[in-house]
Design a protein that fits this description.
single chain, mainly alpha, 71% helix
């Protein structure tokens, strides 16, 4: 096993095993849902009615990000940490057996990018909240740290490309 891989597993086990505090795990189990499809779908629907241009931008950004992430999950086929290492503590197994990259992290970070552009004065809040979703995925045993970091990199590149293309100039949006 290479150095990077061993450090990846070491950090995962530290965060998952050593931070196995009942209150922290309960908070992380609730908080991690802020990166899930249900939360972002509800948020997109709300935004489409409340602030249509932002809602459309958010929907496009999340859709493209999730399409790329789930395509990579399908291609890479990396098993979740709890499926590979018995020492990883997980409360409930995921229906999606592929870990790489983290979809929750990608959607949370894409939301942070989107909302930081719309509300730059709140960027200081959006990014730590998104990073905390990624951290929750590691603490809960669903992802390796490298899954989360790769997801952040992929999302950053995707957002940069989408921002460059600027879909808001299409008629009707």
């Amino acid at each position: 096993m290479g150095y990077f891989r061993s450090q990846d597993i070491r950090l995962l086990l530290f965060l998952n095993n050593r931070l196995h505090l009942k209150g922290l795990k309960a908070f992380m189990r609730a908080y991690t849902h802020l990166g899930g499809v249900a939360f972002h779908s509800c948020l997109a629907i709300f935004l489409l009615f409340a602030e249509r241009p932002l809602g459309v931008t958010f929907l496009i950004n999340i859709f493209v990000s999730q399409f790329l992430v789930h395509s990579l999950k399908f291609l890479v086929h990396r098993p979740r940490p709890y499926a590979t290492y018995e020492s990883v503590i997980v409360r409930k197994e995921s229906r999606d057996t592929n870990a790489f990259p983290s979809a929750h992290t990608a959607s949370s970070l894409m939301a942070a990018f989107t909302f930081s552009k719309a509300f730059p004065e709140l960027a200081w809040l959006f990014y730590p909240l998104a990073i905390l979703v990624g951290l929750s995925r590691i603490i809960l045993g669903y992802h390796y740290p490298s899954d989360v970091l790769a997801s952040m990199l992929l999302t950053s590149l995707t957002y940069t490309l989408l921002h460059f293309l600027d879909f808001s100039n299409f008629s009707g949006i």
